[in-house]
Structure formats: C-alpha cells, structure tokens
Amino acid sequence: MSRIADNLTAVQDRIADACAHANRDPAEITLVAVSKRKPAQDVLAALAAGVTHFGENRVEEAQEKIPQVLARVAPDGLQPVWHMVGHIQSRKAKLIPPLFDVIEAVDSLKLAQKFSQLAAEAGQTLDVLLEVNTSGEEAKAGFAAQNWQSDAAVREVLLQTMQDVAALPGLHVRGLMTMAPFVDDMEATRPTFVSLAALREHLRSEIGWALPDLSMGMTNDYPVAIAEGATIVRIGRAIFGERD
Ligand SMILES: *Cc1c(COP(=O)(O)O)cnc(C)c1O
Fold first, then answer.
1. What is the pLDDT of residues 55-76, one digit of tens each?
2. I need a labelling partner for 146 at 20 to 30 A (CA). Which of 32, 41, 43, 178 fits?
3. 3-10 contacts: CB < 8 A, separation 24 or more?
4. Which atom of ligand 1 is nearest to the CA of 86?
5. 234 CA to middle of ligand 1, Å?
6. What are phi and psi of 43, to 5 degrees?
C-alpha cells in the first residue's frame, strides 16, 4: 500500500516538473492509473492515495475487478472514474458503457457507429476519445494517420472518416488518444505526440470539434507527452510496478 502511494508521489512530482518546464498548470493533467493485470486491492490503495481515474484494457478483467472495487468504496468517499484504454471488439461493445465512464480507444468508424447505436438505445451520451495511429506501426490500433501532414491521401481519408464520426449522434468526442512506439530513448516518441497535437488543431478548424483532451504518455514517455500538450497521461508500471 505504501509502495503504491510512494510511487504515486514520484509520478506526481515528475508530472509537476514536466509542467514547470512547459509552463503548464499541473491541474490541466488528468492522471489515469492503468491498473490492468493488477488486483482490486491495488486500485483501492491508489484510490486511498488520491488517484481517482483508472484505466483498464480488457473487458473480462474489468467485469470482475470494477464491481470488486465498487463494493469496497464508501458511498460518500472518492468514487473511481473508469477509462477503457484497450481495443474493443465490436461484439463486446455493449458491455462497456455500464462499466466505463470514458471510452478512450474508439479506433474505427465501425466501433464508433456501434457506440452511437448503444447510446441511442440507452438514451445517453457516451464520452469517447478517438485512438489515432500516428506512428504507423502495424501492430497498433487506431485511425490511420501516419504522415497525415505530408500525405494528402492519408489526410483526406482521415478527415472524411472523422466527419463520419462527427455526424453520429450520442457520442461526445472529448479528444484524441495515441500510443507512441515502445523505444529506449524517450525523445524518439516526440514526433508522435507533436503529430497528434497538430491533428487536434486540424480537426478543430475543419470539423469544429472542441477536442479538449489529448490522451498521450505512458510510463516510458509521459514527460515528453506533457511537453507536447497531453491533458491525460495513462500510467501503469510507474504506479503499480511491473506486470507479470
Ligand atoms: C498498458 C497501457 C498503458 C500503461 O502503460 P505503462 O507502460 O504501464 O505505463 C497506457 N495506455 C494503454 C493503452 C495501455 O494498454
């Protein structure tokens, strides 16, 4: 328990440093503690230490863990806010809205359409982020956006798809999410984050979306992501330790 609290303090200090360097207010940054493959008791320890946003990446795991956490949270205490950060199969989409508050990884038009339909059926609006594959790595999910600034064909398809998403009812598109390549040198992730921030500006002017959030930055690279405008950082290992 104190290990998680200590780790959390170190992460918060590093966020504060990154903000100071970038002339940003740490209050602009939401820390999402990614608790995937960690038990409910670790979530409760982080919650006790003051984190309120949690990220999970698998539906089945969340179906078990989220009720376990909620059963042990005092009704008048801090309530966790759950972010789905992993890829969602279309046929499992209906399981997501009852469990999660923010769906960060909407990575295709088909999935956006599915959530729009679920939102309509439930008479609710869903908070979503659109996952963008800025690095072009094949193993990564997300709307294709490699070299979108220099490649007009990529840009055209991307913009058309985003316009199709914007036309769907029931979705509150809060922003964009990306994952940088996994590299040793944190500096090498910067172009990915710069590209995502620029894409937000482009979509703001082309579609008129407000897009307040940029979800970028994980254990390996969050100081760089903050320097480039992240408003949400998703951090697992630096808080909870290495995963098995
Ligand atoms: C696992 C995961 C994270 C956290 O990664 P760490 O390296 O543990 O900080 C962030 N975002 C997504 C989408 C993840 O799957």
1. 999 999 999 999 999 999 988 9
2. 32
3. 3/241, 4/42, 4/45, 4/46, 4/49, 4/239, 4/240, 5/45, 5/48, 5/49, 7/238, 7/239, 7/240, 7/241, 8/33, 8/46, 8/49, 8/50, 8/51, 8/239, 10/238
4. 13
5. 6
6. -65, -45
Residue whose CA is at the smallest distance from ligand 1 atom 6: 236
Task: Tell me the CA distances in angstroms from 231 to 73, 111, 192, one per residue in order.
Answer: 27, 24, 15
Task: Give the model confidence (pLDDT) of 92-147 as tens digits.
Answer: 999 999 999 999 999 999 999 999 999 999 999 999 999 999 988 888 899 999 99
Residues 218-230: pLDDT tens digits? 999 999 999 999 9
